[in-house]
Amino acid sequence: QVQLVQSGGGLVQAGGSRRLSCAASGRTFSRFAMGWFRQAPGEEREFVAAFSWSSGSTYYADSVKGRFTISADNAKNTVYLQMDSLKPEATAVYYCAVPRGFIFAQAIRLLRAYDYWGQGTQVTVSS
């Protein structure tokens, strides 16, 4: 099994910054990729960013490109999502997720590509 433990989140003013962390562990965990998704009230869960351990590549939703940065600490099996210039529309519950195995770049933005999910953390951006 794989465990994902998230930290960070909370209340932040518009224009501010916040960093989320997601630490992966477990006997069957292997470093393939990790994605961040978010779900606002009444909305579907959507892709935010992803990091591919396989290629070292990063991927972003258009809505966060240039403001959010995803990075990884391999020694800690942890992926960070640095969120800058936050806007009120970023208010949501944020989830990290990892796949069971290798996934192609074409699938890295898809919810169905991921098998294990973190517990979620609330980010609220006040205007």
Q: Helical element count?
A: 0
Please state the average pLDDT score: 96
Percent helix:
under 10%
Q: Outline, from the CA principal axes?
A: globular
Order of helices and strands: EEEEEEEEEEE
Structural class: mainly beta
Distance between the first and last residues' Cα: 40 Å
Major β-sheet annotation? 7 strands, mixed
Instruction: Count the E strands.
Output: 11
- What is the gyration radius calculated from CA atoms? 14 Å
Are there runs of 5+ residues with pLDDT below 50, and where? none
Determine the strand fraction and express it as a percent band: over 45%
Give a written overview of the molecule.
The protein is mainly beta and 127 residues long. It has strands spanning 3-7, 10-13, 18-25, 33-39, 46-52, 58-60, 68-73, 78-83, 92-98, 116-117, 121-126. Strands 2, 4, 5, 6, 9, 10 and 11 form a seven-stranded mixed β-sheet that branches. A four-stranded antiparallel β-sheet has the order 1-3-8-7, with no helix packed on it. Strand 4 (33-39) and strand 5 (46-52) form a beta hairpin. The mean pLDDT is 96.
Summarize the structure.
This protein has strands spanning 3-7, 10-13, 18-25, 33-39, 46-52, 58-60, 68-73, 78-83, 92-98, 116-117, 121-126. With 127 residues, the protein is mostly beta strands. The strands form two sheets. Strands 2, 4, 5, 6, 9, 10 and 11 form a seven-stranded mixed beta sheet that branches. The chain has a four-stranded antiparallel beta sheet with strand order 1-3-8-7, with no helix packed on it.
